[in-house]
Structure formats: structure tokens, C-alpha cells
Amino acid sequence: MDCLFSRRDVIKTGGMTAMALGVSGLLAGAHGASVESAQGVEQGECQQRPLPYPYDALEPHLDKQTLMIHYEKHHAGYVRNLNKTLQCLSAAGESGDFTLIKHLTGEMAFHGSGHVLHTLYWENMTPETDGRPTGKLRTAMERSFGSLDRFRRQFSAATNAVEGSGWGILAMEPFHGQLVVLQAEKHQDLTIWGVFPLLVCDVWEHAYYLTYQNRRSAYVQNFLRIINWREVADRYTAANRFRMAG
Ligand code: MN3
């Protein structure tokens, strides 16, 4: 079965390229075609990439137990359920029985988005942060938000205010080339179609509750201290290749 993050994606070609592949792979899975196999990627189930650092590497901001449970149980669960869903969609395509198509399509959006966002989340954090955005990413952030400080305040406010379980997301909107801050409820709701996520912060309680309990804003504040801005800049560079701005 084709899938959105197969083993080949571990060979990093830039975060956004992998994510763009992921989106095509997801669609390919839904339609039974095989985008990645056309590029030589082996067939197989969706897989998690290896965590790019040890479980305790982000302490004291994120504790070892939280990371372990989050990666091995929560993220892995989305991948497992995505694989099941893609198998069911493939079976539906073969049999022509689309009785469950509404359910399956919703499941694919939920688990597929969960898998994509967690993959981005692990890789946009680092124990060795480079401090702050630089270069073209910084220029774009200043253009879109006024200043880095205003970005920080908007991102924090939006992320803190996500209703229920969800994500805070810095994204590039390709039609106008603007950077935007979005909230995602669950994993898949409230997006602007076509945006490329550059920086994502998981605010499901499983991401922070062991250390922070109900203090989501303290978690978000510390999350912003462990950003891999180099990775975010790489995603921005890759996203710019998809700009549709006039
Ligand atoms: Mn999570």
C-alpha cells in the first residue's frame, strides 16, 4: 500500500519536500495509485520516522515519560489507524462497496493529519535550539506579523486559545505568500486549504499534562524555547517552491 510517510522519507530531503510528498502519498493512498513507488519508494505501511533525539533530550521543557508515551502510543496509534483506514479504502475500491466511504474519508483526514502534524512536531523541536529565525524566514515573519515579537505573541495567544484538543500552527499560505497563524481543532479542522505548515505545537493534553497539568500557556512558552528554527527555515524554503502568488 502506498502511504504518506514511508521509510524512504527518513532520508531527509528537506522537511517541506517530505511533507509535500506526504500529501501526494495520502491522496495516492485514497485513489489506489502509487506516487512514491513511481519515485522508487518501497511499498509498505505508513511508518513513523525515528525520533530525532533521545526521549530525555528536551528536558526540562518536555519530560522523558511524556515524549515516550506521546511518540510510542499516541503518534503510533494515528499511524496504525491510518494504515487500517487506507487498507479499508483500498478494499472498498476493489469491491466497489463504498457504503462506509463517509466514515473512512473522515478517518483518513483525522489520522492522516495526526500523523503529518506529529512528524512535523518532533522535527521542529531540538535540544540545541538556534535561538531565533534568521534570513528569509525572519524577513517573511516580520513582513507578515510586523515583528518577531508580535509573531510570538500571536502564536502563543492562538495556541493557548485552541478549543479542546488541537494545534497551534505557523503556515505559509501560497496564494498570497503570506505567513499565517492557524489553530487546528483535533488535527484537521479550521485550516486554510493549501497552506504549508512550518511550525506546529501540539496542545492536546497528552503533549504536556504530566509536567504542566492545566498550565497550557506555560508549556507553550517553553515550547518556543526549543524550536529548531533551521528546520522551520528549510520548510519555508521548500514551501516557497509552491507559491502561487501573482
Ligand atoms: Mn499529540
Q: Would you kindly provide a written description of the structure presented here, covering whatever features stand out?
A:
The protein contains 9 helices and 3 strands. The chain has 246 residues and is mostly helical. The chain has 2 domains: 8-123, Orthogonal Bundle (Helix Hairpins); 135-242, Iron/manganese superoxide dismutase, C-terminal domain (minor pseudopilin epsh fold, 3-Layer(bab) Sandwich). The chain has a 3-stranded antiparallel beta sheet. Strand 1 (166-173) and strand 2 (178-185) form a beta hairpin. The termini are far apart. 38% of the residues are buried. Residues 1-44 have low confidence and may be disordered. Residues 70, 74, 118, 202, 204, 206-207 line the site of manganese (III) ion.
Helical residues, percent: 40-55%
Mean pLDDT: 85
* Structural classification: mainly alpha
CATH fold group of the largest domain: Helix Hairpins
Continuous helix count: 9
Secondary structure elements and their pairing?
Blueprint: H1 15-31, H2 35-38, H3 64-95, H4 101-123, H5 135-145, H6 148-160, E1 166-173, E2 178-185, E3 196-202, H7 209-212, H8 216-223, H9 229-240
Antiparallel strand pairs: 1-2, 1-3
Helix pairs in contact: 1-4, 3-4, 5-6, 6-8
The structure holds manganese (III) ion (MN3).
Which short descriptors sum up this protein?
single chain; about 250 residues; mainly alpha; Helix Hairpins; minor pseudopilin epsh fold; 2 domains; 3-stranded antiparallel beta sheet; 9 helices; about 50% helix; globular; binds manganese (III) ion
